[in-house]
What does this fold into?
Amino acid sequence: MEDNKAIVCKDLTKQFGDFYAVNKISFEVLKGEIFGFLGANGAGKTTAMRILCGLSFPSSGTATVAGFDVYKQQEKIKKNIGYMSQKFSLYENLTVLENIEFYGGVYGVPRKEIKSRSAELVQTLGLESEAKKLVGELPLGWKQKLAFSVAIFHKPQIVFLDEPTGGVDPVTRRQFWDMIYEAAATGLTIFVTTHYMDEAEYCNRISVMVDGKVEALDSPANLKKEFNADSMDEVFYQLARGAKRSGD
Amino acid sequence: MKQLLVFIRKEFFHVFRDRRTLLIMFGLPVVQIVLFGFALTNEVKNIEIIISDNARDINSQQITNKIKASAYFKVQESVLNYKDIEKAFRKGDVKCALIFPAHFGDDLFHAGKTRVQIITDGSDPNIAKTVVNYLTAIIGDYQQQIAPSPTLAYRIIPESRMLYNEEGNGSLNFIPGVMALVLMIVCTTLTSVAVVKEKELGTMEVLLVSPFKPVFVLIAKAVPYLLLSMINVILILLLAVYLLDVEIKGSVLLLFLESVLFILTCLSLGLLISNVTDSQQTAMLISMMGMMLPTLIFTGFLFPLENMPKVFQIISNVIPARWYFIITKAVMLKGLGFAYVWKETLVLTGMTIALLGIALKNFKIRLQ
It folds into this structure.
C-alpha cells in the first residue's frame, strides 16, 4: 500500500449466484483526486460502491479504502469516509444547525468541536440567517451544499458522492462543483458517480463501467483522444452501446 | 453511547415537530375513550354457569333443567360456598353463578315467595347484564308455568350481584380494551412509519454508511415511543379514574409494568413491520389493517370471544393484545395480583422476545 493512494482495488468481484454484478475490477484512486465513477444503470456501480463504503463484502479480490481492508476493517472504513446521495439525506424537520449537530454526533465528533465548527460552516455557506430554520424551508441548491458540507463535516479522507447533482439546475451544479474543487484542494479524495457527462469533464480521472467491468480509465482528455471523440458524451456512448445489461 | 443519545434527541425533535404524530399519540386515547364510553351491547352464548342448588327440591330442579335446555348456558352443577364460587370467577372461565337457598321450594309454596341469587362477573358488564337478563327471563317464564294467573300467587325474586363492578359500570370493560388498542396503534404504527420514513428520505443510507451501529438505529427509534407510550398509559388511566370514575382495584405499579411489557411487544412488532416494508403507506397499511383490526376483533373487548367459532378462538391466541387485555382486566378491575396473571405475562414476554429477535435479525443493511 503506497501512501498516496486513497482507494486500491484489485480484481474486485461481487457475485450473486451466476451473476457477476462486479467482475474483476481493478483501479486506484489517488489522494486528493476527483475520481469520476461512471457507468450505465445496472453496470455495477452501486454494488462496487457499497463494497467500498463497507456495506457489503466482495466475493473475491482485494480492496483497501483509506488504507483499510474492506473484508476486515469495515468499521474503520466507515469512520474515515463521508457519503452523500442524490436524496441529500437531510432531515427536513430539523434546523440547519440541528442537522449538522446530528451528523457530527453520529460520527463521534466531540461536542465542543461541533459547536465551533458548525458556526464556522454556517458562516462559510452564508446561511447565518437560516441556521435556525428548518431544512425543509431551504431551496434545493442550499440543501445540496449543506448536505455536502455535512458529509465532510467529520473530516473524512474520502467522500463518496452518489449522483450528488440529480435534479439541480446547471448554475447550482456549477457552484456545487466549485465546492468540490475547494474540498479536493485541501487533500480530500472525491469519489463521484454521475450521469451528467459535462460533470465527468470536471473530474481528474474517470472510469467507465460496462456490464460489471471497468472498460476505460483515464483523464477525460486522454479518453476523448483514445476514442477519437469530441465530448465525454460520445466516449460514454461508444462504451455503453456494447452493454448487454440495462436497467437497475 | 453518546452517539445513541444524539440520535434519540433527534427522534424527539421529529416527534414533537410532527403535529400528525402528536395528534395520533395523544388525541387518539381521548377520542377512543369518549367513543367507547357508549358501551356496546352484545349477545352471549354458551356462558359457563355454576348452579349451586342448596335446596335440591323439585322447583329448583325444574329451573335448573330449563336453564340446561337453553342454548345460552353451559351448566356446571355443584354445591359450593361463596368462597369457592369466587375462586371459579377469578380463574375466569365461569361468568355467572345461580344460587338456590336451602328452603327454596318450601318458601315458594308456604310463604308464597322465595329468593334466588344470581352472581355475575361484572368486570365484563355487557356479558354480565345480558346474563342477568337471560336468567331473570327464564325464572320469570317458570313462574308463569307454575302460576299462570296474573295474581301471582307464587313469586320468585331474583337477586343479582355483579361482582367486581356492582353498578354495572360499562366503561370498566372497554378501558383495558382502549389501552390495548391505543398502545398498539401508537407503538406499532408510529414506530414502523418512523423507521420507514428514513428509508424513503434516503437518510437510512447515510446512517448505514456512518459508523453508527444499525441496531442502534432501531433502539433510538423505539426509545421516544416507549417513553411517550408510558405517558399515554398514565393519561388513559387518569382519564379513566377522573372522567369515568373507574376505580383501579389492583396494584397500579403492576398495571404499569405490564403495560410497559405490552408496549415493548408492540414496538418489536412495529420494528419488524418496518424491516419488511419500504414505504410509509405500506407500513401504515400493514400496521393499521393487519394489526388494528385483529386487535379490535380478537381481544374480546368488542365481541365476546366465547361466541366465536373455535378456529377464531385459536387464532386469537396469537394476538398480543388479547393477553394484555386479560392482564389489565384482572389487575385493574378484579384487583388480582401477579400470581393470577403470570401465565399471560409469560406469553407476552415470549412474544416480545421472539418478535424482537426476528426484527433484529431481519434488519437488513442495504443501500437501495
